[in-house]
# Entry
Amino acid sequence: MEENRLILSHVNIPLEEIDFLQDISFTIEENSMTAILGANGCGKTTLLRAICNQIPFTGQCEWNNISLQNCSARELSRLLSYIPQRSGITISMSVLDVVLMGFNPVLKLLETPSKLQKEAASKALSMVGLTDFISRDYLTLSEGEKQLCILARTLVTHTKLWLLDEPDSSLDFHNRYHMLSLIKQMMHQSDACALLCLHDPGLALNFCDQLILLKEHHVAAILHPRTDPLPLMEKSLSAIYGSVTLKQITDNKRNVHLVLLSEQLP
Amino acid sequence: MKKKLWNNQHLYICVIATLLAFLTSILVGKYPITPAALMAGDQMAIRVFLTLRLPRALIGLLGGFGLGIAGFVYQTVFRNPLAAPDIIGVSSGASVGAAFSILFISQTVLPVTLCSFLGGLTAVCLALILSSIAPGKKQETLVLAGIVVHSLAQTLLMFLKLMADPEKELASIEYWIMGSLGSVTLSRIPWNMILICLTTFCLLLLYRQILLLSVEEEEAKTLGVPTGQLRILVLLLSTLQVASIISITGLISFVGLLAPHIARLLTKRNRKSTFLLSGFLGAFLLLIADILAKGIATTELPVSIFTSLLGAPFLVYLIVSGRRQK
# Structure
């Protein structure tokens, strides 16, 4: 079986008549999580949207030797899942119906979800901890619960490439770790890979295998938190977040964490 | 489980109420018909029943059902609680078609039906074409294009009215715009009935896709929904449905707007049974309005008076009480 791999080479994304992102090249290996980091408005979301073919760009973007630019919406939906910052569900429907939407790529036009698929959907909901919400109206959920519900929808798709745009932005401390562990677990279970935009570099350092740092329309650095030396990472992160200190800390259970501290305290 | 039963209870009650209204509608009218007379083989009663009452009640039933379904589809696809067939110009297009026929072709039933049908379809196609030329977000441009077509059609209608002979033609145009089930006869309805049934059936089959269309464009695309084609398909189907109804009856206001709202207020959510409930509520509303239209005065009254009379206070209630969502 061939390896699942996303390769971007020399991608330029024009936006409002300038090349908003220039010469973006990186590779995402299977079983891995990659985070895109950068200041607000540096183009994290734009990059994700380009990969899932929603804005035009030049250069190569290949998934297992398939050029994603040439795929139809339906083909694309079978290859990758995209979680936007905020889901665009604007009319009331049940949480279960929202999750069942995840099966659309494999259903025919007039087909309705099978009993098996409904069971898979409720299993996904229990994985994200929303079992009690199954028949609730999606619109009445809190923002964090909505994000968990959309994650459940992504869980049922069985796609091998996940693009997640700040999937944790409305989650509390516990759920943030729970969601990222869940994603990591899914990646390993199904040989998939994930590309995430994250605001919190601390989370990215501990959960992701690769960090892509964007600054001034370019890739400023690509870091590998597991292998790169701390001083090097500290220097690269300081370039986008202002001067920071990177420390290794051991918790009570002897897990080693990377902790990023901003030096901008009063 | 209990909750599920209760949800469907609305549907059952509404189906029974609609059937009762349907039977009442058959019995109410100028010529008195009783079940006993029909049984006894009263020739006149049977003729009135077959050629007038039954077709009229059927159109009330199917037309109302279709308008309720179409209203639900429009509101879902446009993600707008006030969306109605007017929003992409089908009603005003049909009015222009009818007025055109009354002025230049014939005031008889068949040409008016055909022209209003074509008018409605033309308006929608125009709106779809206009919005497909424009780049960018389809949803908003489609609504805008619809408004453009709508006002264009209104202007045309005004011209046609100016040209009309106030004694006869203008009156017919006005009467058509007010809508009535009074001119429904057996010979007029078979094709339209087939169309209404067919489109309703297709829309019911497409329910899952219609729900997917309510999700924002980009997200729907990543779920593998061919949003562009699907939206056109669904809108054409629902427009075909509306056009085949109002080309027989003339404009009927408020049914398409109200039925989905009441359905959602009752069931408190969107699901397939809400979709069906919306159709039955539409049928109930139209049948009741029609019974009042033919029963309340010695002359036939336009049905829109009663759909509006029943509908307007409810809309005010909706606005005042603040839309239920959130």
